[in-house]
Amino acid sequence: MAYPSAARESPPAASLYSAFGHGCAPRVWRLRRAWDDLLRRVPCDCPLCGGAAAGHLLCSACRSEVLASRAAAPAHCPVCALPLRLRGQQCPDCSQLRPSFDRVIAAFDYATPGDQLVRHMKNQRRHAHARTLAGLLADAVLAAELPLPRHTIMVPVPASLGALKRRGFNPAAEVARALARRLPCALRPELLRRAREGRRQARLPREQRLSSVDHLYTCPVPVPGASIAIVDDVLTTGSTLDSIARAFKAAGAASVIGLVVARTPYGGSR
To answer: Model confidence over 167-205: pLDDT tens digits?
Structure first.
């Protein structure tokens, strides 16, 4: 039995690129971006320290602290964005087995205090943190050495039924929705489905994570030549992203890029 999806009827492949880049879509995006920029000026409390901030964003001091760990790393793997201890060091994962995804862009490393934002959003249902996290991720995407391909299609990682029942929402989808207001990408969550229920990744050791997601995700329609950006909150082993990338490339995607809020250090856990 197929995993249930909110979108039971999938659009034909020919319509994949019509959601953005043709007709009035660019104007709609510019209006949404203008509205989002206006909201970013509304005074609020910093989500971390409670000090003066605006638009559900971090104050300048907390922002610098969240980004500090990633900026302090000597280097990062150009494929999976893993922080490395030395320049020129080989990635312990990508050097052994080339992943199916092309590269990853991460906003920050999963370390204090940024990890608090992720945990509070997921476990305390602080939905406004999705805008905060999406803002940091959007800045990372725009500052990346390689820009996103034109007409990139954004797809959030689907949550399991257990996670949806436990939290009442999908954190990756909330971040993707906010991110789509900052980046000129079509948001197409219906292009990715879970084929079955899998075991909770956070409770599995590293080796079991790598095998537990085999054939867990499916792309229900062909996506010939598409550039796909997979949005998730935390990247740990990369097993989920790798499984999703294999599904999309089997459906004809030309490239699959991971856009993640936080990247764990090697051996880290959520």
So the answer is: 999 999 999 999 998 898 999 999 999 987 665 555 545
Q: In whole angstroms, give the CA distance from residue 255 to residue 111.
A: 29
CATH dotted code for 75-263 = 3.40.50
pTM of the predicted protein model: 0.82
Taking residues 224-233, what's their average pLDDT? 98
- Please determine, for residue 270, whether its predicted confidence score (pLDDT) is greater than 60: no
The label of the residue with tokens 């959520």 reads 270
Q: What are the tokens at 99?
A: 């992943």
Alpha carbon distances (Å) from 155 to 173, 188, 204, 219, 235:
8, 5, 25, 11, 15
Distances (CA, A) of 88 to 69, 238, 263: 19, 21, 19
Rounded to the nearest 5 degrees, what angle is found at the Cα of 126, between the Cα atoms of 178 and 81?
55
- Nearest alpha-carbon partner for 66 in 80, 85, 79, 53: 53
Determine contact, residues 110/262, Cβ cutoff 8 Å. Answer: yes
Phi first, then psi, for residue 186 (nearest 5°) are -75, 140
Whole-angstrom distance, CA of residue 77 vs CA of residue 87: 10
User: Which tokens is 37 given?
Assistant: 């920029």
Stretch 81-91: mean pLDDT: 90
Neighbours of 246 (CB within 10 A): 19
- What pLDDT is recorded for position 215? 78
